[in-house]
Structure formats: structure tokens, C-alpha cells
Write a structure and sequence with these properties.
Elements: E1 7-8, E2 13-14, E3 19-20, E4 25-26, E5 30-32, E6 37-38, E7 43-44, E8 48-50, E9 55-56, E10 61-64, E11 77-80, E12 85-86, E13 91-93, E14 102-105, E15 110-111, E16 116-117, E17 122-123, E18 128-129, E19 134-135, E20 140-141, E21 146-147, E22 152-153, E23 158-159, E24 164-165, E25 170-171, E26 179-182, E27 187-191, H1 193-198, H2 203-218, H3 223-231, H4 240-248
Parallel strand pairs: 1-4, 2-5, 3-6, 4-7, 5-8, 6-9, 7-10, 8-11, 9-12, 10-13, 11-14, 12-15, 13-16, 14-17, 15-18, 16-19, 17-20, 18-21, 19-22, 20-23, 21-24, 22-25, 24-26
Antiparallel strand pairs: 26-27
């Protein structure tokens, strides 16, 4: 299933059922899992490990060295899970020593055309990156997050689970779970009601998350005071606990 015009390093580990298109280049220390499809004109450099049943479209570049002036040639890797889609011209960099040496992408993520994932990022599962969304280095994106087209996330920021950004959003701070955000710079516009309904959140869950949102963004409470009030909602609305955990974890400060 390897096209005769593809260049595959002899040391690369290519599992059964992998298809590699013409003019693609697979470098040393690359491992590709069963059932993965690599289209034409793709470049994958190692150390890179790719799981099962991924689809990697033309002109994508995976596992290239970090776009970081501090990178000094140290060994660093890219790890990709299963059933991810990388559409045309996606770029994903390997890690650096300053970020643990690994860029990691989980399972079932959908990266549309021209998406960029920089060094040392951590992408969880079931996320969607619309066209031209970009992450700077060391960004963490949690499960089911949806980044609108041309979204830009500053280095070391966190993007919480089940949140959604509008087109052209630029965030220099952490985005808490469950939110709808938009603008440059990013501002909150309520909870991601439609997305949460699609993922099975109950009416009671939505009501509790809306109360938490109002305490965080619509009250006159300071952040610590708001968190204490939000903690009181956890018993009746378990999803609020994840919001509290996020707010209690040190980061770049939340959008507010």
C-alpha cells in the first residue's frame, strides 16, 4: 500500500494496512499504526508515533522541529493517537526540552486545513479545529473543545473542555470549560448550550452551569469569592466540579 513514488526510510515502522500516497516522505524513527491513510505530498519526520486509522491529507507536515529559538537540537517527539483527521496543510511540531520533550495529540480529533499545533502542546480527545486555527507552544486543549476558524491561542494557555470559540478569536488567557467565547481579545458570551445538549448534558446540568457562569461573570464577586460560591453548586450539578478544578489550577489567569 506504499506508492512507488513515496520515500519511506527503511527504519520507519509501517503497520499492516497503512496506505502512503505518492511523493510523501516518511523519515527515520516514524511509526504509523494499522489502517492509517497518508495522502500525497505529506512529510512526517521522527521521532513521531502515529496510532491507528488516522487520515492525513496532502501537504501536511507532522513531526518537524519546533519553531522555537530556544530549540537546540535536543531529542524531542510527537505522539498522535487514533482516528484523527489532519486536513490539507496541517503543521504539527515536535516538543522541546522546556516542555517535557513531547507534543501529544489524543484520539478522534478533527483538524481542518491550515491548522498549526506548536511544540509541546497537549490536545485531548474529540476536539475540532476549524480552518487556520493555531496554537502557540505549550497550549493544553481539553476534550470536546471546538476552535473556530482563525482562532489563535497564546503560549501556555489552557482551553477547557466543551468550550467553543468564534471565528477570529484571539485569547491571551485561559478559557474555562463550557464557555462560548469570541473576539480579539476573547470575551465570554455564555455557556456552550448547543454543544452541551448535543453531548447529552441534561436540563438540570445546563441550569447549574448557567448559575456558575453568572457567578463567575455577571456578579460583582472577586474571582476567589466566585469560586467559593460556585463550589456550592457541585452537589446539585456534578459538571460544575470540573469548572472548579480548572479555576483552582494555576495558569495564565482566565478570560474575564
Amino acid at each position: 500500500m506504499i506508492h512507488p513514488h513515496a520515500l519511506v526510510d527503511p527504519s520507519a515502522e509501517i503497520a499492516p494496512g497503512v496506505e502512503i500516497g505518492p511523493f510523501s516522505v516518511i523519515g527515520p524513527e516514524v511509526a504509523i499504526g494499522e489502517g492509517t491513510w497518508v495522502g500525497p505530498h505529506v512529510v512526517i519526520n521522527g521521532p513521531t508515533r502515529i496510532g491507528r486509522e488516522n487520515r492525513i491529507y496532502q501537504f501536511s507536515s507532522l513531526g518537524e522541529i519546533a519553531q522555537d529559538l530556544k530549540y537546540a537540537g535536543e531529542r524531542a517527539a510527537l505522539e498522535i493517537g487514533n482516528r484523527n483527521v489532519f486536513r490539507e496543510y496541517c503543521t504539527v511540531s515536535r516538543g522541546t526540552a522546556g516542555g517535557g520533550g513531547v507534543t501529544r495529540i489524543g484520539d478522534d480529533n478533527f483538524l481542518m486545513a491550515y491548522v498549526h499545533i506548536a511544540h509541546d502542546c497537549r490536545i485531548a480527545n474529540h476536539t475540532v479545529f476549524a480552518n487556520c486555527a493555531s496554537l502557540a507552544g505549550h497550549v493544553h486543549v481539553e476534550d470536546h473543545a471546538v476552535l473556530g476558524g482563525f482562532t489563535g491561542i497564546h503560549q501556555f494557555c489552557r482551553v477547557g473542555e466543551h468550550c467553543m470559540t468564534g471565528i477570529g478569536t484571539v485569547s491571551f488567557q485561559d478559557i474555562p470549560p463550557y464557555l462560548m467565547v469570541a473576539g480579539n481579545t476573547a470575551k465570554p458570551y455564555g455557556i456552550n448550550t448547543t454543544g452541551l445538549k448535543r453531548r447529552g448534558f441534561s436540563a438540570e446540568d445546563l441550569a447549574g452551569l448557567k448559575k456558575a457562569y453568572k457567578l463567575l461573570y455577571k456578579s460583582s464577586l472577586r474571582l476567589e469569592e466566585a469560586i467559593i460560591e460556585i463550589e456550592g453548586l457541585v452537589r446539585d450539578c456534578p459538571p460544575v466540579e470540573r469548572l472548579v478544578q480548572f479555576l483552582r489550577t494555576e495558569g495564565r489567569g482566565i478570560i474575564r
